[in-house]
Amino acid sequence: MSNEEQGVVGIVGAGLVGALNAIYFAQRGWKVELYELRPDMRLPVHRESRRGKSINLALSERGLSALRATGLDLEKTILEASVPMKARMVHINGTQMSQAYSVNGKHINAVDRARLNELLLDAAEEMKNVTVHFEHRLLQADMDNNNLEFMVANEEKRVYHHDLVIGADGAYSKMRSQMMRRMRMDYNQEYIDTGYCELSMPPATGPDGKPTFALDPNHLHIWPRHTFMLIALPNPDYSFTCTLFMPFQMFEDIKTEEQLIQFFTENFLDSIPLIGEESLKKDFFANPRGSLVTVKASPHNYEDKSLIIGDAAHAMVPFYGQGMNCGFQDVEVLHQILDRHHIKPVSKSNRIEGLKEALDDYSKTRVKDAHAICDLALYNYYEMSHAVTSIKFLARKKLEGVIHYWFPSIIIPLYTMVSFSTLPYSRAIERWHRQSHWLNVAMISTTLATASLVASVGFKYRDQFLPTVRSAIDTMKHLF
Amino acid sequence: MSNEEQGVVGIVGAGLVGALNAIYFAQRGWKVELYELRPDMRLPVHRESRRGKSINLALSERGLSALRATGLDLEKTILEASVPMKARMVHINGTQMSQAYSVNGKHINAVDRARLNELLLDAAEEMKNVTVHFEHRLLQADMDNNNLEFMVANEEKRVYHHDLVIGADGAYSKMRSQMMRRMRMDYNQEYIDTGYCELSMPPATGPDGKPTFALDPNHLHIWPRHTFMLIALPNPDYSFTCTLFMPFQMFEDIKTEEQLIQFFTENFLDSIPLIGEESLKKDFFANPRGSLVTVKASPHNYEDKSLIIGDAAHAMVPFYGQGMNCGFQDVEVLHQILDRHHIKPVSKSNRIEGLKEALDDYSKTRVKDAHAICDLALYNYYEMSHAVTSIKFLARKKLEGVIHYWFPSIIIPLYTMVSFSTLPYSRAIERWHRQSHWLNVAMISTTLATASLVASVGFKYRDQFLPTVRSAIDTMKHLF
Predict the structure, then answer these.
(1) What is the DSSP letter of A204?
(2) pLDDT digits (tens, 9 = 90+) for A340-382
(3) Whose CA, among A13, A432, B61, B102, lies 20 to 30 Å from A378?
(4) Domain residues for B225?
(5) Nearest CB neighbour to B186, from listed A181, A185, A191
């Protein structure tokens, strides 16, 4: 073998993206060292401590595609542990209105983060060339030699060497901050004034005395209230996990249980009996306030040495349900690019041939898509909390949907491109902007045609229609 | 005294801004603990290691005002150690053109960073309530209790408690990163593709055999070449410190001494004999390449606990010569605000009354000014490397200058507002935008009047002038 050795990749963070990436690298024939700060979440003692803290994620096509591409049973196993959601259920004035995610009946999938992580860790550990190291806290990285120093189980320091290091250690990534000390990385983090608090909605009791869902389970429930909102996602155990999003100041203004109940009575009346008054009070005051940050970094790689993926490279607000899906797609795209560059799991004098070009290529491709979905997720906060209640918005959505149903390749709704395709995010947005242009032209032309028709029928209504026509023509001018 | 104690402020970083801030806090009657990572730069052994590495800064009105406000002899002492620069000297095609900084003969001052730092440290240590701790490396900060843990002289860990902690530890601030772990701080860092390398130009020999300046000392010399440039600032010892700014790729393309000399021959011919061929080769290949980053953070304070100032809060590219001036002004503004809020150096149960409101006020005021000068510094890179050679730009500058000379309060050149006043940066820029508008109106009106005059004299020239008139009218339309 002379100076050749099997390539070793070190992955920091055995969360969702890190674990999936370990599987991909193992399948390419690399030796994989997967490091995780926390103890093994699958041990009974740690499972116990997770009770009542289920966090749901919405798994959609980008995530599913990355699971499918492993060729393992992952997609099937994970879908079995999830609840399909085919529509939003909007709660306004005590009524519920269903808004389908797709005119073709496509759905997204509510899945428990911890359960998903366990399934991925099981699959990773089944590969003979993956070693998972729990309770490994990264202390520092020698970026040029790819030596990582860890504090192991709070007891001793150990140093490991790698040919490539990948940071999949989340929004507050230690790997990223180590890379920033060594390279010129552009970096941006921005918080929104909105925070969140989780509440749980227990199973209801069905007519047969058995547990059942308190709300229609095949929906993502939303109580949109413009500056704040409540959402609820189903769990396979018949409970719902609710999240209240609102400005930090509003959280601070609710100081007593009476104020809380009054706030819910005024805004989310139908949710109170479903959550239960006692449980609501307990959760609201005991659970932490989460904050929401957007993180953008560029580039994502440091030469042929290291790379950040998932939240470490692009944390986003959760309003498009794309955080995990984007992270999973990172993994699929990364390995497509490694394929394209014919990267072999062979290290010659601590170098993998062609790796720098491949990782540069990855950053070039993925940075713009990551930036695009970060921006879109922020925009969708507006849509979820605000626009889903506007008639104009709904009319526009309806028109998009109708055109897409009859001419599926002419107008594709943005939500469909993001959640039900694997089209790069940046291209989905470009296409959306082009479509919006023509959709506006169509809507204005329709207005003009109607107005002309009315005018030709009788001069009687002319005065009423003239302002509309003028404004339509004005808008037309801006479109060209 | 019951539960009252003297307020203790901990300042991390005894650089220029940290040392000045220590003086201000001491004058307010606080107990000041000033921590510095490096050993005492004033000890002969460390002085020696600094030789040939002088970095010059341009001290202007904002910095001077902050020194003056201490009431000490600081301004005078420091000006004595500096060289006044009243103009830019632009080197093009072997000729030199002087461009005054101000129509009133105002000047900026070249000062050696290390010398300035020494003078400030001396002044700080003269205050009986300041203690300077050298070789203190910040390990971590307990942000809510203001306990700072340091590694002292690479030997032992020590923890110090404070009522208020201030991070003045530069662009890569450790205090800032500790604050970011505890609070929602918006943060942005962005590199430019341009790097820099320092070169030194030794004293020349005068006709009397004594050392003298190789170039006119009362100028900031610039060799602007659009995508790259060379600058030179005078030192009191008759040498100049030169800095070559250019894209990293260009640095990398110069691999041999021959390529270097060819590059200088083509671009900076007149500088070669002044720097000296051997010294040029040595410096260019031995000195490190610096990178240039813009850092913006918001807010600058964490409640009443901590604050970042200077580069820690707002690193900027060096092209407006405002980095230090802005940092000194931070100190002056901070203490004006502490005065306005009547902050007393008295700690009751580890709290200083009114401090949160004062620090919130500081962030509110200073964040927008810091962002403004960061953006302007980036814009000035364009002006320095590019625009100083354009005729249109120079005509516009001249017009500004003439109007300012005759009507000093109508049009104030931006450079004058930034460098020769203490007007908040954000207001200087607002005013500049308003002025630019009217200056454009004036220039276009002049063009129109001239054209009409010519047209009335004879139709002969009509065709030549029509396009100018049309374009002037078009531009006018955009201005309103």
Answers:
(1) E
(2) 999 999 988 888 999 999 999 999 999 999 999 999 999 888 7
(3) A13
(4) 191-291
(5) A191
